Amino acid sequence: MSTHTTTVAGVAVDTRHFIGGERVASTETFTDVSPIDGSTLGEISRGTAMEAAAAVAAAKAAFPGWAATPRAERARILHAIADGVDKRLEELAIVETTDNGALLRSHRRGVMPRVAHNFRFFADWLLTLEHEDFDTRGHTNHVSWDPAGPCVLITPWNAPLMLATWKIAPALAAGNTVILKPAEWTPLTASILADIATEAGLPAGVLNVVQGYGSEIGDVLTSHPDVRRISFTGSVPTAQHIAASAAANLTPLSLELGGKSPLLVFADADLDLAVDLAVEQYDNAGQVCLAATRILVEEPIAEEFTRRFVDKAARLKQGDPRDEATDIGPNIHPRQLEKIDGFVQRALAAGARAVIGGHRKDGQYYAPTLLTDVAQNSEIVQEEGFGPVLTLQTFTTEEEAVRLANGTRFGLAATLATGDPERAERVTAQLVAGTVWVNCFFVRDLRAPFGGSRQSGVGREGGTWSFDFYCDLKNTVTAPKGWKDHG
Predict the structure, then answer these.
(1) How far, CA to CA in Å, does 431 sit from each of 274, 399, 402, 405, 460?
(2) Handedness of CA 437, 439, 442, 445 (dihedral sign)
(3) Phi, psi values for residue 268, rounded to 5°
(4) Cα torsion through 53, 54, 58, 63, rounded to 10
(5) For residue 485, pLDDT beyond 80
């Protein structure tokens, strides 16, 4: 076995960068650790400014050829990548579960199939991407989507491969080249994807993967004059830093940031459904940007809602995410666990009450928590903790519910439980959110726009919106006269 390869759950993973179609090692490494049990998964090449610059150079060199590749051929290669993901789905699932602690059953049944779907969807969308020509005083307007150039994609650790390919697939479909910087806590499946893409026939330099810490390679990537698009999913402070770095070159940004989303439960709602929706917010140990961590319940049903919630939450099984029966796995990293517990302990000290949970468990596991008696302006209500911690507040009127729901600096998503369609329409129109779910949660269609309002992000992706971002849109206006006879 090569010194640059680690074996995770029986799967060999290359620990080097992937630049210009070649594996590139760094002189320094960083240690990748499993959140499940703290075991070391491998020593990963730790990128520097040199590797970051090399990746941009490789992407720049590969761009003209890939941009000129016919749409049908680009789509064929993306479908071949999807086929490769399907072929290695079990390997990808077990490696990612070991690396980030999310449920293996979810990776097998939902997340990794979605990875393949990301490539297939944008490959197919590319082939139908067109805008109807229109007339202006006899002149023809024709809109086209031109590839923009090298794209830097910086992705998070909570759903590493799915969220990476949500960016990679449309960027490649559009004819761009990519420099992927995966989260340093979860680098492994991005390395496997590089192998899959190569086997699928993706030309060298079209997809590059640089591993390491954002502080060491991020600034080089985001401030580079040859980078034409930057897409980032993560925290508001990091996004602010990226935006400042990109400003000198006016590099367009797509930012999907934090959330502190509400779940509004009205007295006319199906209470069992509402409770199911609330307990579902513990998915992935609460490490979901879209999670409705603020539960807002109409006063007359609050007591019964809480009783049913506690009963259902008590039946959740927390433990090893590789166990089919497990419902909640570990949190990603000791630093994240400290952050989560800090939020909870400060809230308790300020007068909040833990209806359930409110404490750590062994290892990197945090007890599913529900806090009540919290003030609207408190930290626990206003700031994203990114763990299995929910708050419950009550309201008496529809107007108060909307005010509480909109009462943060975020606007990523909102969930609404009601039995009245007119109320649903009325309240939805007033909510500040990029996505609103009514009597459901986490139903995602790649044709729909996705993104956040306020400090939850900038821009929208999905369907044509993705191509609008990853392309330079061009309008060609042609006069009806002026042609010479070339016959």
Answers:
(1) 18, 11, 7, 7, 17
(2) negative
(3) -90, 5
(4) 0
(5) no
pTM above 0.90, yes or no: yes
Helices (H), ranges, 183-252: 188-199, 219-222, 236-247
What confidence tier does 482 reach under pLDDT thresholds 50, 70, 90?
confident
String of DSSP letters for 361-390: -STT-B--EEEES--TTSHHHHS---SSEE
Q: Kind of pairing, strands 353-356 and 17-19?
A: unpaired
* Residues 6+ away with beta carbon under 8 Å from 282: 313, 316, 327, 328, 368, 388, 390
DSSP category for residue 210: -
Please state the φ and ψ torsions of residue 186, each to the nearest 5 degrees: -145, 70
Helix (H) or strand (E) holding 290: none
Q: Which amino acid is at 17?
A: H
In single-letter form, the type of residue at position 177 comes to T
Active-site residue numbers? 256, 289
Query: Which tokens in the block code for residue 318?
Result: 């927390």
From first CA to last CA, the distance across the chain in angstroms is: 67
Q: How far is CA 253 from CA 146, 210, 219, 239, 240, in A?
A: 17, 19, 14, 9, 11
Handedness of CA 84, 167, 12, 108 (dihedral sign): negative
Burial track 465-486 (b if 16+ CB lie within 10 A, e otherwise)? bbbbbbbeeeeeeeeeeeeeee
Position 486 pLDDT exceeds 90: no
| pLDDT-based confidence at residue 2 (cuts at 50, 70, 90) | low
Which amino acid type is present at position 445?
A: D
Name, in order, each residue with C-beta under 8 angstroms of 253's C-beta and a sequence gap of 6 or more: 230, 231, 232, 242, 243, 246, 458, 459
3-state secondary structure of 24: strand
Encode pLDDT of 231-273 as tens digits.
Answer: 999 999 999 999 999 999 999 999 999 899 999 999 999 999 9
The model's confidence at residue 483, banded by pLDDT at 50, 70 and 90, is confident
Q: Distance between CA 140 and CA 475 in Å, rounded?
A: 10
Closest CA to 301 of 279, 282, 273: 273
| CA geometry: angle 404, 408, 413, nearest 5 deg | 85
Which of 262, 298, 301, 300 minimizes the C-alpha distance to 278?
A: 262
Q: Which of 278, 271, 99 is nearest to 182 (CA)?
A: 99
Token pair 């080089």 is found at 220
Structure tokens at 334: 């000791």
